[in-house]
Amino acid sequence: MIEDNKFLTPRQIVAELDKYIIGQKDAKRNVAIALRNRWRRMSVKSEMRDEIVPNNILMIGATGVGKTEIARRLAKIADAPFTKVEASKFTEVGYVGRDVESMVRDLVEQSVNLVKANKREEVKERVSQLVEDAILDALIPPIKSKPRATTTVDHDTMDITPQDDYELNEKTRERFREKIRSGEIDDRKIEINIRQSGNGGVGMVGGGMMDEVSMMNLQEMINGMMPKKSKRRKVTIADARKILMEEEASKLIDMDEVKEEAIAKAENTGIIFIDEIDKIAGGSKQGGGGPDVSREGVQRDLLPIVEGSAVNTKYGIVHTDHILFISAGAFHFSKPSDLIPELQGRFPIRVELTNLTKDDFYQILKEPKNALTKQYEALFMAEEVSLTFQDEALYEIADIAFNINLEMENIGARRLHTVVSHLLNEFLFDIPEIIGPNAKVVITREMVRERLSDLIKNKDLSQYIL
What we know:
Number of helices: 16
Helix content: 40-55%
Mean pLDDT: 82
Low-confidence stretches: 1-5, 158-162, 283-292
Strand order of the largest sheet: 2-7-10-1-11
CATH class of the largest domain: Alpha Beta
Order of helices and strands: HHEHEHEEHEHEHHEHEEEHEHHEHHEHH
CATH topology of the largest domain: Rossmann fold
Shape: flat
Number of strands: 13
C-alpha cells in the first residue's frame, strides 16, 4: 500500500493499476473514478454526504482478462476491506445454500482483520519491548530482593573482585538481552505461560429460530464468561516471540474500538466483488441448484443488499448503502439485460473488457511488478540459480499461449501459467541435485519450441487445461 492513498487522483490510481495489469484502460478509468468518489463523498460537509450513492460497476469480459485482479488491486491501493463472492454459489431464501448476507459478514471480517493489523503496527514497538522482557525473565529471572555483597573470581587472572548479586544479575541480563535481539539464541528453549480460552469443550447446538449471527454472539459471550487458563509450555525463543507478541498485542488493543472502526471502514470503503453474475441472469431454473431454486430469486435476494440495507453481523449492524459493489461476468450465453431491471439499475457503470492479444501476453510476461517470469526468477534465486528470459523466448511463449487459447477454450492470461509451468518444470525438478548453486539458466526461443513442442502438436490438450 502506498502512503496518502486516499488523496490519489484518478490518473494516479490508474498508474498504480498499470504496474500490475496490462491493458483494460476503460475498466481502470472507471474504477479509479469510483475510488476517488469515495474520498470525495467523505469530504462533503453537508447533509448531502449521506445521499451520495456509489456508482456500482458491471464488468463484462471473458475469463482471464483481469476483472478480479483490477478489483483486488483497487482494494489494496485504497487499503479497503475486500471480499470476492461467486453469485452462482448463492441460493434463494428458504433453500439450503449460502445466504446472500454472508458476503457482508465476510467483508466485515476482512475489515476487522485490517483494523487489527493497523492497531498491532501502532503498538508494535511497545509489544516488542514487553515480549523481550518476558523472554529475558524466563532465561535469567531478575533479583528483586535486597542486594547482598559477594565476590566473583576472574578465572583468567584469578583476581577476586567484590560484587553484589544484583549487579551481576543485571550485567548477565544485559548480555542476554543483546543475544535475544540479535537472534543468536533463537533455538534455545524456554518455559512460558500461554493463555488458553476456558471454553473447555462447551459447544452450541443450533436449532429453532436462532440464526447464524445469534449463535456466534452467544458462543462468544459464553467464551468470554469462562475463566481464562494458562498452560506452561516449553518452546524455542523464536516460537515464544511469536506467541507472546500475539498475546501482548491483544492486551493492548481495545476490541470495542476495533469493532467500531471496522464497521465504519466496511460501510464507507468496503468493496464487494460479485463474480459470475451472468450465471444468475434470466428467469429460468438453474440446473445445478435444484429444481426450485431460481436464478431470478437469487437476484431478488441480492437486490436489497446492493440497494442498501442493514445486515446483522457478530460485530454489530452494518449498513450497505455506501459499499462499492463491482460485479463481473462473461455473458457468453446471456446478456446484462437478462438481469432483473431493478438490479440492472444498481450497476449504472458498464465496462466491457477486451480479449487479450498476443502482444498483451508478451507484456504480461515482462512488465507487471508481479509478472510470472519474475515470480519464477525469484523461485530459482531461492536455490541460488540465475534464471533469465530472452525477449524472443517471451514472444514465443506468448504466441504459443495465444494459439492454444484459439484452439481450445479461451481462459485468457491464465493460459500463461500452464505454458510457463510446463516449460520450467524440468529445471525445477533438477535443482539442486543436477543444477547446482551459482548456475545460470537462460531461456531461448529454441528452448521454448523444443520443450513445448508436445503442447503445440497435441490438439487435445485436455491435461493442460487449467
